[in-house]
Design a protein that fits this description.
The protein is mainly α. The protein has one domain: Glycosyltransferase (Alpha/alpha barrel), CATH 1.50.10. The protein contains 13 helices and ten strands. Strands 1-2-3 form a three-stranded antiparallel sheet. It has a three-stranded antiparallel sheet with strand order 6-7-8, with no helix packed on it. Strands 4-5 form a two-stranded antiparallel ribbon.
Length: 371
């Protein structure tokens, strides 16, 4: 490993850009308690109240990460146990089914057994963090099992470069359908440290290359990106899927990931790409909002904004537009504070991205996770 690579691994999840004060820690604690009360069952199931009370592997994974940040070992174990029993068919190392809920017959069970790579990565990352924080070798064993599944089922070589796919369903397709918001280099660096059996760092450069070339003429990353299976060259979405190139509810998460890469690994490619999100900061200042979904040229697709997007912007804007994050926080998120967290009572997704954005922005995640 190069000296630069070693430095990246050594510093991942240890830098604290801001030292959170008592008020910040109190807010994180209060909103975590509110989230548990309003979106989680006592047994560790996270409820998507906006989608017929289903549960998803993504929701379970976010809960694991938040419990880890809050040093809430009890909730972490409840979430992990429910997930293993209900989404992993009681096999701790099996990639979890992405969707669980109630059928028309009234039965509650897995609705779609297909895994989702973003949830699988977040879950493995949290488990490795829990293993270190709470001295739980069983968590590491589970994480390594998930990592073997991710590598075998959710990565593929395309034109000589290994890419993370959105799920096993995307293997061996042409064009290859990719979701850039699923690419988590900060997690791959940790995986490489704890799982030497797989070359996780091989994913990093191809992901950054595609994050660059998948961008639209409006300099925004798309929700979905397509590449030719033989050449790896970016191609337009297939007929009927043109809206996949929009910047929307998937792509906004990329801003958070890039900020994490800068703050934890001082990644220059991430810093460069964050300047596209600086353009959104300028747009917010001049227009008073950011549309929740935008066409590739930046034209709004909808006439509303989304607090989850604003939350995910906080840490990145604090890097490329100092002071703008503070203004965004007070203008868009503080006024939406409520007993259950923020904004919409049924929007668990937005709750998570506001909380994760605030936690990263304030440095509360700096000493957490698999350091």
């Amino acid at each position: 490993m190069s000296l630069a690579g070693a430095r990246l691994l050594a510093t991942a999840l240890t830098l604290r850009p801001v030292s959170p004060g008592p008020a910040d820690e109190l807010l994180l604690s209060q909103t975590w308690a509110a989230y548990r009360a309003n979106f989680m069952q006592a047994d560790g199931r996270v409820i998507d109240r906006g989608a017929a009370d289903r549960s998803t592997s993504e929701g379970q994974a976010y809960a694991l990460v938040r419990a880890l940040v809050m040093d809430d070992e009890g909730t972490f174990e409840q979430v992990r146990t429910w997930t293993q029993k209900n989404l992993q068919y009681d096999d701790a190392t099996r990639l979890p089914a992405w969707s669980w809920g109630q059928e028309g017959t009234g039965q509650w069970h897995v609705l779609d057994p297909m895994p989702a790579a973003d949830a699988d990565e977040w879950m493995a990352w949290a488990l490795l963090g829990g293993a270190r924080r709470w001295h739980r070798p069983d968590y590491k064993h589970q994480a390594l099992g998930l990592l073997a599944g991710i590598w075998d089922q959710e990565t593929q070589e395309v034109a000589g470069k290994r890419l993370l796919l959105p799920g096993p369903w995307a293997k061996d397709r042409d064009p290859v359908r990719l979701n850039p918001s699923y690419w988590l280099p900060f997690a791959w660096r940790i995986f490489a440290r704890d799982d030497p059996d797989h070359a996780w760092l091989e994913l990093v450069s191809p992901a950054y290359e595609l994050l660059d070339t998948c961008r639209s003429e409006g300099r925004l990353p798309p929700d979905w990106c397509y590449v030719d299976a033989a050449t790896g060259v970016v191609v337009p979405p297939p007929r009927g899927s043109e809206r996949d190139s929009d910047f929307g509810f998937e792509a906004f998460r990329i801003g958070w990931t890039l900020a994490a890469e800068v703050l934890w690994s001082d990644e220059p490619r991430a810093r460069l790409l964050l300047h596209d999100f600086a353009g959104l900061a300028d747009r917010w200042r001049s227009e008073g909002r950011i549309a929740a979904v935008m066409a590739p040229d930046g034209t709004p697709r909808v006439d509303y904004s989304y607090q989850g997007l604003y939350g995910a912007m906080l840490p990145g804007w604090s890097i490329v537009r100092r002071g703008r994050a503070e203004a965004l926080w007070h203008a868009e998120i503080v006024p939406r504070r409520a007993a259950h967290g923020w904004g919409d009572l049924v929007d668990y997704y937005g709750q998570n991205w506001i909380w994760l954005g605030f936690a990263l922005w304030q440095g509360a995640m700096g000493a957490q996770g698999p350091a």
